[in-house]
Design brief:
Blueprint: H1 2-27, H2 33-57, H3 62-74, H4 76-89, H5 93-122, H6 127-153, H7 156-178, H8 182-206, H9 210-218, H10 225-228
Helix pairs in contact: 1-2, 1-7, 1-8, 2-8, 2-9, 3-5, 3-6, 4-5, 4-6
Length: 229
């Protein structure tokens, strides 16, 4: 539990840092700057905290989490292509969104199940084959994610959103690395979970009304699940 508290604290810290550059952009739509910052930090902490908890668990449950992460990464490019097809062929936004949600869930689960089955089959193979196969899967996953980023950066309307996501990922990675220092971990274990809960609750409260609408319009990536759905 102490390790999870430290990871949640690192997620909260990363969220606070990530929210700083995006808050002025949200405030340009008329939202109060302080409320925008608090709402962005809370929304970002809502997914960075559990994400860092999962990242910490990877070290003790490598196979399961590795398979899930690789399956999700492999599904990134097909999901992007599916979104393009539905956007061009579906003119009813709610229907298109519902269709995408169902198909995307099936696609992600399919890739995760396929990756899981592949690694199960490879357990009976030689070490060299397992290592080569794993390297190929990782390369395909990274190539797919990279292709999605290139496609997104090619659309001017999506550039700021992509940069928000990359900034959140980079900041979370740096804060995760801080947990390698014993003194940082000893402090984070005590205050991490309460800090994360405070940031998330404050963000949910601040993100109501006009502030929430401004976040969904200008920084939905950092708005967290509340802005996504």
């Amino acid at each position: 539990m102490n390790e999870r508290s430290a990871a949640l604290g690192a997620g909260a810290l990363a969220a606070i840092v990530t929210a700083v550059p995006a808050a002025p952009r949200v405030a340009e739509l008329g939202a109060h700057g302080a409320l925008a910052f608090v709402a962005l930090a809370g929304g970002t902490a809502l997914f960075l905290g559990p994400g860092l908890v999962a990242a910490g668990a990877v070290r003790t449950e490598t196979n399961g989490f590795r398979t899930v992460l690789l399956g999700i990464a492999l599904s990134a490019l097909p999901l992007s292509l599916l979104g393009d097809v539905l956007k061009q062929s579906t003119h009813h936004r709610p229907l298109g969104a519902a269709t995408f949600a169902v198909l995307a869930l099936a696609l992600v689960l399919g890739f995760v199940a396929g990756t899981w089955r592949l690694f199960e089959v490879l357990e009976a193979r030689s070490f060299a084959m397992r290592r080569a196969s794993f390297a190929i899967v990782v390369a395909l996953a990274l190539a797919g994610v990279g292709a999605v980023l290139v496609r997104a950066l090619g659309a001017p309307a999506l550039v700021s959103h992509v940069l928000d996501g990359l900034r959140a990922l980079a900041t979370a990675t740096l804060c995760h690395l801080l947990l390698r220092f014993p003194r940082v971990v000893s402090i984070a274990r005590r205050v991490g979970a309460p800090l994360w809960a405070f940031v998330v609750i404050a963000g949910l409260v601040a993100g109501r009304g006009a502030t929430g609408a401004a976040i969904r319009a200008t920084a939905p990536v950092l708005g967290g699940p509340v802005a996504w759905f």
